[in-house]
Design goal:
Blueprint (H helix, E strand, L loop, with lengths): L7 H17 L4 H8 L6 H19 L20 H18 L2 H22 L3
Length: about 130
């Protein structure tokens, strides 16, 4: 079933669909393994997935469960480059297509592209 509305439940489904592909990918997984490990069922990963669910719920719904600075943790990651951001977006778009109807998924594709572009600018990645 694909969602045709954005809810916190649908966002969690998207996050749960997306991050296993991140861990399986040779380009993106090292960044996540370094910070939260390789076991997506671990306490660290579950906290990270909850944080990301709250981030996207804040972004899409104005949900106030998220507080923090999404850019800040990226400054400590060594080796982030344009290729890793492009691969992250590619995998994210695939997850969006698995979980949402196309017209609803466009919101996340547009927002994630804008966020990635802003992150790269702020991190000095071209």
């Amino acid at each position: 079933m694909k969602y045709n509305t954005i809810t916190k439940e649908s966002i969690r489904a998207m996050v749960d669909s997306f991050y296993p592909t991140i861990l399986a990918d040779s380009i993106t997984s090292p960044f996540f393994v370094e910070k939260v490990g390789s076991d997506i069922n671990s306490k660290e990963w579950q906290a990270h997935l909850e944080l990301l669910t709250n981030f996207w719920a804040f972004t899409a719904l104005g949900d106030l469960s998220y507080s923090g600075s999404p850019l800040a943790p990226h400054f400590s990651l060594q080796g982030l480059d344009k290729e890793s951001f492009e691969r992250w977006l590619e995998l994210f778009f695939e997850a969006i297509d698995r979980v949402y109807e196309p017209e609803v998924g466009e919101f996340f594709k547009t927002r994630s592209s804008n966020i990635a572009r802003n992150f790269m600018i702020n991190l000095g990645i071209s």
